[in-house]
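ok trying again, last paste got cut off:
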Amino acid sequence: MPTQLRIYTIENESMDQWVYFWKTKVKPLRKKMGFKIEHAWRADDSNQFIWILSHCGPGSWESYDQAYYESFERQSFSPDPCRFIVGIQKRFLDRL
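nice, full thing came through this time. structure:
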């Protein structure tokens, strides 16, 4: 099962807004589209939001991620949650 670590640097003073939007919009839609949210944390000292998500299915990670971003629901997020993000790091993880 592909698992990805995502580290988002959030715009100053916007962490609470980002977390609310993530909990109410991003997380439910990711789950609806077959993703599993393994864990999520906030690191206020560095304005970082860290989360791990996975997906188990017959297709590629890229196809599921693309389907998420191209979905009507994601396209209708208003305002776009990306406005809070000033930096993104993504890494695939291998379970030991």
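cool. The CA atoms of residues 14 and 84 lie 6 Å apart. Strands lie at 3-10, 35-43, 48-55, 85-93.
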